[in-house]
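**Reference record**
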Amino acid sequence: MTNGRQALEIRPFGSSHLDAAAALLAERHRRHRRAEPPLDPTHESPETAGREISAALAADGASAWVATREGAIVGYMIGSPKADETWGPNIWIESAGHAATEPEIVRELYAVAAAAWVKAGRTNHHVLVPATDAALVDAWFRLDFGQQHVHAVCEPPSKDFAVIPRSELIVRAAQPEDIPVLAELELVLPRHSQASPVFSRLEPPSFEQARSELEADWGDPKWAIFVAEHDGRVIGSAVGCALELSSGHTPLMRPTRAGFLGFAAVLPDARGLGAGRALGEAVLAWTRDAGYDWATTDWRSTNLEAARTWPTLGFRPTFRRLHRSIT
């Protein structure tokens, strides 16, 4: 095909293309870090970026293409499927799965890649895009993608910050006797996500499964668990941990030395009391006290409560997960 300048050629990705693709990804990450310095600077190195591309290529079922112009590689794209029982007949273009010298090249790469994916019956497409690159996000939007999920970062609070919930609320560290209600709260978020307007495919665990996992992990210092009480009743919980424990954040997406607000839920009949915000503040204070430089979290865009609450605590998007369903 042509773009009014030199011809753009798209062909399958080969091992000889890795170094040039790594240079493109390293440059994309360099631009991203100019807008979001918390991101790991090591991925500005083509060698490190190349390892992320190699990992994407090694995923089960991966397929990949490169775009060249006058013999020079100007873009690449890699997609691979995740579990169909969770995501339907899907393809994921992960954070290291695409880079190009200009956004329009990504559109041309997707046109070729999507033809192969749809022919194979894979019609649910996901892509992780740097949130600060408006032109790149727009290029994907013009491919009929919409925003599904947000990954975000913020600074931990200052040393003099203290969690001061409403007078009728108490926020404290969870205790062993809280395990039954914590197990109940573990079911709240997936049930909420199954309803409108999220419509998640993920099935919640059973109460027994949730309780068993809590009992097995209890006392593990990797997890910081907080609860909110109202009139002596636990109505919400939140969990903090190191970001590396989140499978949803690949190395390219991780700020350096970051804590993670990995879970928060409030019982449906207790919403509106400010418990969610207070629990989020407790995890932010924990990230500071645990010595992390940054706090991170993520949320479904259609989870209205999360989308309203977390930005008010200072979280700003670093990556947008976009989705297209082809019917």
Observations:
- The chain is about 35% helix and 30% strand.
- The longest strand covers residues 233-242.
- The two ends are 27 Å apart (CA to CA).
